[in-house]
Write a structure and sequence with these properties.
Chains A, B, C, D: Pfam families: AdoHcyase, AdoHcyase_NAD. Four copies of one chain form a homotetramer. Chain A has 508 residues and is of the alpha/beta class. Helices cover 44% and strands 14% of the residues of chain A. In chain A, 62% of the residues are buried.
Chain lengths: 508, 508, 508, 508
Amino acid sequence: MALLVEKTSSGREYKVKDMSQADFGRLEIELAEVEMPGLVSCVTEFGPSQPLKGARITGSLHMTIQTAVLIETLTALGAEVRWCSCNIFSTQDHAAAAIARDSAAVFAWKGETLQEYWWCTERALDWGPGGGPDLIVDDGGDATLLIHEGVKAEEIFAKTGQLPDPTSTDNPEFQIVLSIIKDGLQVDPKKYHKMKERLVGVSEETTTGVKRLYQMQETGALLFPAINVNDSVTKSKFDNLYGCRHSLPDGLMRATDVMIAGKVAVICGYGDVGKGCAAAMKTAGARVIVTEIDPICALQALMEGLQVLTLEDVVSEADIFCTTTGNKDIIMVDHMRKMKNNAIVCNIGHFDNEIDMQGLETYPGVKRITIKPQTDRWVFPDTKSGIIVLAEGRLMNLGCATGHPSFVMSCSFTNQKVYVLPKHLDEKVAALHLGKLGARLTKLTKDQSDYVSIPVEGPYKPLVRVWSGWGNMRYWSSYEVDQILVSIRGCCSLVLRGCFMFCFVFPF
Amino acid sequence: MALLVEKTSSGREYKVKDMSQADFGRLEIELAEVEMPGLVSCVTEFGPSQPLKGARITGSLHMTIQTAVLIETLTALGAEVRWCSCNIFSTQDHAAAAIARDSAAVFAWKGETLQEYWWCTERALDWGPGGGPDLIVDDGGDATLLIHEGVKAEEIFAKTGQLPDPTSTDNPEFQIVLSIIKDGLQVDPKKYHKMKERLVGVSEETTTGVKRLYQMQETGALLFPAINVNDSVTKSKFDNLYGCRHSLPDGLMRATDVMIAGKVAVICGYGDVGKGCAAAMKTAGARVIVTEIDPICALQALMEGLQVLTLEDVVSEADIFCTTTGNKDIIMVDHMRKMKNNAIVCNIGHFDNEIDMQGLETYPGVKRITIKPQTDRWVFPDTKSGIIVLAEGRLMNLGCATGHPSFVMSCSFTNQKVYVLPKHLDEKVAALHLGKLGARLTKLTKDQSDYVSIPVEGPYKPLVRVWSGWGNMRYWSSYEVDQILVSIRGCCSLVLRGCFMFCFVFPF
Amino acid sequence: MALLVEKTSSGREYKVKDMSQADFGRLEIELAEVEMPGLVSCVTEFGPSQPLKGARITGSLHMTIQTAVLIETLTALGAEVRWCSCNIFSTQDHAAAAIARDSAAVFAWKGETLQEYWWCTERALDWGPGGGPDLIVDDGGDATLLIHEGVKAEEIFAKTGQLPDPTSTDNPEFQIVLSIIKDGLQVDPKKYHKMKERLVGVSEETTTGVKRLYQMQETGALLFPAINVNDSVTKSKFDNLYGCRHSLPDGLMRATDVMIAGKVAVICGYGDVGKGCAAAMKTAGARVIVTEIDPICALQALMEGLQVLTLEDVVSEADIFCTTTGNKDIIMVDHMRKMKNNAIVCNIGHFDNEIDMQGLETYPGVKRITIKPQTDRWVFPDTKSGIIVLAEGRLMNLGCATGHPSFVMSCSFTNQKVYVLPKHLDEKVAALHLGKLGARLTKLTKDQSDYVSIPVEGPYKPLVRVWSGWGNMRYWSSYEVDQILVSIRGCCSLVLRGCFMFCFVFPF
Amino acid sequence: MALLVEKTSSGREYKVKDMSQADFGRLEIELAEVEMPGLVSCVTEFGPSQPLKGARITGSLHMTIQTAVLIETLTALGAEVRWCSCNIFSTQDHAAAAIARDSAAVFAWKGETLQEYWWCTERALDWGPGGGPDLIVDDGGDATLLIHEGVKAEEIFAKTGQLPDPTSTDNPEFQIVLSIIKDGLQVDPKKYHKMKERLVGVSEETTTGVKRLYQMQETGALLFPAINVNDSVTKSKFDNLYGCRHSLPDGLMRATDVMIAGKVAVICGYGDVGKGCAAAMKTAGARVIVTEIDPICALQALMEGLQVLTLEDVVSEADIFCTTTGNKDIIMVDHMRKMKNNAIVCNIGHFDNEIDMQGLETYPGVKRITIKPQTDRWVFPDTKSGIIVLAEGRLMNLGCATGHPSFVMSCSFTNQKVYVLPKHLDEKVAALHLGKLGARLTKLTKDQSDYVSIPVEGPYKPLVRVWSGWGNMRYWSSYEVDQILVSIRGCCSLVLRGCFMFCFVFPF
């Protein structure tokens, strides 16, 4: 590939769009820090002890201003960091430039091709001949996937001498993955094995990535421990619910300037993301219709005054369609053909296969008119009517806006760090953010504490559940978790240990 | 005691306020049935097989119109039923009359004294010399408590010949409990032991009752299995969140006719009940201030634009105070003294000790003016200013209004019955209510089902957790639960078995 | 008629349901005073000067607790008062009892027949041989109507000797009116002429009553001046919008205990009343559909996310129907036949002809089952399915609940009094209520005041419009209004003068 | 000045930022047309008759995509158009390019200096030696102001030979105005007189511009008729209320990416703009505090649960400050000094003097850091803390976002055209937008129409008020207005006549 790594004057590698945007990025990072009290408090509290001293961290996570604050929190705690984005559209180029210049190795820009995307991922994982990172901060699981596929290919190669064959698959993206592994294999046939050896674990941010991990765990394919950050309350509720409530209208407005009031918005899925999206659309004056498979979620939607119908019932009447399911094949090209002229179709769930982009792209005679980057009008030849697809079916809040606001990401990101002791858990993350918002907590009296059997200092949700897999789970008490954390990898700092288990740690 | 049991022409026992209200009660029961599709579906589906044939069920649960529909569902499934209320103010007398006349033994009226209350509880438990009920439907745990205390006293008596001594406690309510047990002991020294022997288990509706059960479990004092209905989503979310969102304003308006818009409302606690209350007050136009001990709940309140402060910060500025904590000593008499004239103080949490009623009643020189039943103005001698206390500090939605609406209670009550197979769980309860609201669910395709590893028919939340106690828990898979259910008490029908475990059974 | 006037020990006339409820009424009046700062301030400010000394005031306005505070404000300012209700269901009997005992002549009880209703109206107008009241506080215009019809009949009688003939009309209510006039004529053939002579004017509270006045004005039939209180902002916005937002759910819950969340509610009309109703239903979790004739109001509904359809489109799908139009024939019996079983039908607009009660009552084979007073189930013979009609089609917030809360009524009622000087207007009414709600106003600087040409002390809306009729209007400046007020009826106090014009006085 | 007019190949003048953005602009104009059914319907209905044939129209109104659709509506109806923006930041450069290339003479770009701004205004008014435009579409009144000042200066020059002296004023912007007039005078001493002679009238969009017109009218200085578009319901409610509800969060998010939930937002002023802003902030999860001078507006805020305080009360606690008053000196530099670090300060009212920008700019030692265009951080030397000021204190929704969405502007702009017959009025504008939103209106029956005295076809609000000035007003009936419209300027088409009166025409 023609892509060349560049180096800063201090010799740190990077590949970004435009280094001259570093000053602008720095200004916005400084703004964001004021909005991210959780991360800033981590630096204040843990910085002096340098708990991440010597740790190598690779991140595959949207390279935004908020992520920049996370990266600089990690480096302030002593870590070395290499970073790529986990989405071809989600990088903010000024953020990437500032970090590349000042803090860490970055390989990311807005509008990567798929080929460039995987090149960046491989670069972020490559720490040289000594093996890979100690820790991966993954979002969607692509970095984790690359290592697993790499190890698999290396094993086959060791046994049979056979290189991976990109033509063995129809999936164009997987062809690229195989090519990259093939290239690596020819240079170092133990490259991914070395990574696996060094790796203490991965922390995963998303529902989708977590699901992948569970599936690997179930089949015994999982090569290293993982921690599910997605399911802590301060991540899932804040990132999914409040974050999407903020960023769906943001993305819609930036991409289309459409008036939301008076429109009919269909939200596919009513989990936390869907709840946030539906709330945003409703309060902006849209009429919201929900599609759901789960009767409990459906009943919750009804209790908020939202209609629950199938996509087929409303496809030709609605103005805005947004997928939030984490499942595939939600809006198919046959749905899109029946939509009103200029209906808006977007995805805030996870992968771009929630929307049948392939069906759309290959529809005979369909015409794509790019209004502006990440805003395309697709015109069907038979009806001459067009629909607006945002971010090419990928995450519209990252592609069309700037992702979640700093405050939300501070809640999510502080979780990376805060699993020192499980009893603090989420509650510590939440508490770190209250001062900024002027809140004052009530304290339990000793007498009340006894009455409800909850310690004065918390945790206020009594139960910690930890398990080692989806089908085959086991639960420990909060005390057991402490013991387990202590026993893992004595060489790691306590702070790191919190992240390095394949477990859920969250309040009941 | 001078209370006399009456009998219907068919010989069934009862004690209600006014049998002439039975027709009125019947009309409202018929109305409520239309609103309770879950229970009605249970009768349609399970009625013919009479799964509860021969079972004796005692209920201690607010004797409302909605409960009447539950009782008649149980009798339609074959059970015999005896009932009392679990709150001195919560009985609807026309509901009690209709049930007493038509379906079951009822001992309940609005405005019982504490002495009358415990007499009713004892009556509901007394199935004659053959022992007590097979199943208790408990709410708050008073029926469970009476049996436990009874067994304890019988044991002491058996060993030492000593009768319980009501003067041994300062608590006036507990004095009554001891008196009743003492009276029973003198008639039959094995009365409560027989009950315990026969009892297959108890299902408990409330957080508070569940907590008591856990505490007994932990100390080894729990005498029989129990099922926590409180924590199923269709109970906790619907009853607590949506139910209180409905019934807090209802109770306020019936009791005081106060304009909610423009007022400052303090909601103590921001769990599910608090969330429902805060939403109701906010949407009615009040400014809402939340008090919390838990930083995560506090952050959730802030994300909805609510202020989080301590009670002390706002005690002299707010117009409405509502406790939702499940803890005691939330609003003390010293708070009440500092409130504005005619500030409203009420409790929708659980026991009346959320509000310091004792402190209020014994405040020197305080004057109580009863505006109407369950609405009292208490005037402080020093300031001459008064506060309005609803339902004497007990649950205001039951004391001042009519409790949760039928639709909500249908969600809660259907849970009593639905634990046939855990994989149906909550989802079945929810699904039974969707038709009534005109909702249409989306179906997973086989392909999507594989992609997300969720069966087409559900359950959509993959995990079932079952445990046997608070501190000492264990979890089983959905399959294990099935096995356990099958193995318990072969003599019981499958339907009953679902209820008769001391376990949580709820979706992840 | 067999109705007999009773007398208090001091000789004041009354006819109420139950005098023993006077103490209860007094307690609730005292509560309401705290919620009605506008009226209480009037007493404080104007009481010492007794501006209404010697004035006779007749009121025809819902005899509620809030009206009781109004009546006692009038008597505190020096007036003598006689009162009836303007709706057969709206009286609160304890309020009537307290006023009858303590303050004024009252003829009103909950559940009057139409015959009793008009007897009460006639009693309230009858001040003995010296003629009628100086001022009428009218709501819906029935008192005004009676005088106009009386004068008309007297004129015919004077010319032709002919008495009014009740059989000359099909309208059963108008038959009663004619009977009463006929009876009066036979006693005193100048009774209504004397009333007209003495009467300085009427203040009218409702849109409907105002419309009647305009129609009489246009045809030259209006016999005395009138003031439209309905269209001041503190009346129309507060009473209509905020009042109905409060009292629609209140009435629904008291009458039916139905869960509003999840239901489909149809609001017929989207004026101020409809806006309040729709907001209440939406925030309680219902899905709201609006019917409208006016495209501007329709567009406003759409901007709030509400669907705008015709009644026919949704009649068989909705759960709750509420008319708010002020027009007739909105929900016809043919609509009602198509509704779901137990659909709720109610009216919060004005007259009971918004709902086709006559069509319902005369539907062949229809069966009426009274659940409780003001809550009827009507079952159609063909479908066996029934609908719930509230308050017999009359105002459900008065029939099923207790009308608007005190705070709202304080805004409306203070208008009765406050038109001393038009420049104060509504703004004074509003300002009197701010302190209670803890608000702090900003003051214009002199410089800002000049910049926007608004006086520092207000009025903040620059225009005062006054006119003398609907088709034939004329407008005066604020200054002119002052002059006119001063010139009318020198014998009246300044306070009264504000009320005694046929004019709108409200801010632009 | 060094600015040079450019010409298209067809010879039409223009001055825009970048003609290569014309294609992008065209795509977005086509999108916007789908959202602007009112304007598109005008072209369909009136296009064939070319009612504006031969009319010259000058516009001074934000040169956005939505305005582009308005301009092309005007040209489709036959007019020739010259355009400038009315705000130095509000131009969308791609919109300007598309219009300049395809439809009209445009002089506008984002980020004009004040000198450039007035140069553009003068260019838009200059139609060559034959005088100025027939009609001005003004927004804020700057085009109107320039003609008035020009005429004044020409009169002085004619009498005394004296040229205007820019140094006679301290106001830097007015110095520029005088310079431009001075330059013009030296070329053609009758330039502005000729404009005035030709001009049939001006339509004014904003409250501020309308106020200026009234002040000129009152002093007799107004030189030509004007029509107030601002006060039609479809303009004021939609543009002000719904438009700002949409665009305040849009601007905040684009400029700062700040999380709105959890923040304290102060909205200065609670008129229609303030109501829209407060609703947007509240529903996004902020806690909203309102400042007001008018007690009625204050009471409305309280009824929505908003706190009403003075700016001084909250200046150091709030996170976001937004002015909406139309008055000056709302947020002074002394307020800004006391704000929290990174508090956001913005104006969505009208002129930039709502915020004391001059005080800020001249504060000793203050440091301005431009994060990005229209987003500045101002750091105070004493506290080292900074505030974020948006759009340099000018309209933030235009400076930081893209102004109101197309749908709202379609409501506003269609008013330009629709005053053919006053009885259609606003209602026609509203009706033209209903179809797009899937609404179905209810029709009055003849019987209902008679009952409420409203024609079946509307207008549904019965009154039309027309007057000729603020202090000295007169009102006509709807019929009179028709007559007046017919009598004005027989040479103009009926469509134009609607616009060319100095009058309000709006429903009661």
